[in-house]
Amino acid sequence: MSHPDREPAITRVSDLQTTDSRWIALHKIEYTDQAGTPRTWEVATRKTRGKAAVDAVAMGNVFLHPSKPPSTMLVIQYRPPLDAYTVEWPAGLIDADETAEQAAVREFKEETGYDCVVTSVSPAQAADPGMTNANMQLVMVEVKLGGDDALPEQRLEDGERIERVMVTLDDMYDKLVEYSKRDRFVVAAKLFHFAAGMHFAKTSGHVKL
Amino acid sequence: MSHPDREPAITRVSDLQTTDSRWIALHKIEYTDQAGTPRTWEVATRKTRGKAAVDAVAMGNVFLHPSKPPSTMLVIQYRPPLDAYTVEWPAGLIDADETAEQAAVREFKEETGYDCVVTSVSPAQAADPGMTNANMQLVMVEVKLGGDDALPEQRLEDGERIERVMVTLDDMYDKLVEYSKRDRFVVAAKLFHFAAGMHFAKTSGHVKL
């Protein structure tokens, strides 16, 4: 956000009890391990999971332009959990009555303004398996641009501010490293890992191309 | 885990209040957004973060063998939050008095039995920015093997069972897709995204190699 209306600011952080929360909860899991020993584990869960049995989708996107190199659209938004602007691929929760593909097309349109075509859907992946049961699917999507470069209107919810940034696929890794150095910016781990995988394939000398 | 002593089993899941938890907590964040509107957000946090200001490291590892293709070691373990076996890169929390590099070398030795050399350390990345402030650094490490293929002993904590699986870098993506299809197995999102980035670089035709 180069010119936000004003900088978001946290005014208060307080303990929240699972009894009082609307979106997320803590649970204590009691289990027996492989040796038969009883153990416990603490886990954070979402209260919103629907029939898909998967919480969320992220859209790995490729923009193809007649005269420009293949690019991807990143979204930058203020995230209160980090009190920072995060750099991510467009993403969102899957509604209770949606498939992953439907959620991907809907959320991509809302956050970027573009209609996209789904090219692949990953298996469900565990977001942070030591701490939560949250999971997601990576949906690869493609947008074919004409010559017109005007950005379509986003369909954001009241109060949502999402900045769109287009970077070429070849520049993506370096741009993410740059963003990470900026004050109050942080790159989301899944996006960074995808870019790091591309970078590793290109530069390590250990991958057959 | 092809032959665990017995299958782990969850015996009870109960609501946990932040007041009573040891490892993780829920917080309510009150903040003013870019338009100056007061809003709230719910977040899950770790109670264990130390001086590094980063929670965890994951070790993207490369094993170099005199006569075998470059490979990586994956770890498979039962994760109570998912009631499943997760396929991940070795990872762990950074202790209060450690740097990311130190934690990486220590945790890698504990989980794999191998001494490694750190080749790069990523910026801090946000694990799941909509839900938590949890963050991590991807530490790339290298192990040079001699001709001896015997697995060194792990240094696991009481009750920890971590299976080690070596896959070639060229097979990694396909193996992760296979694991995802197995009953009660799930691949961690960061690992999957790294592999998907490698796969995309090699196969999409959109990346200069």
UniProtKB/TrEMBL annotation, chains A, B:
Record flagged with keyword Glycosyltransferase: no
SUPFAM superfamilies: Nudix (SSF55811)
GO biological process: nucleoside phosphate metabolic process; ribose phosphate metabolic process
Gene3D superfamilies hit by this protein: Nucleoside Triphosphate Pyrophosphohydrolase (3.90.79.10)
Domain of life: Eukaryota
Pfam families, A to Z: NUDIX (PF00293)
Name under which the protein is recorded: NUDIX hydrolase domain-like protein
Gene Ontology molecular function terms on file: ADP-ribose diphosphatase activity
Domain Nudix hydrolase: 54-190
Keyword annotations: Hydrolase
GO cellular component: nucleus
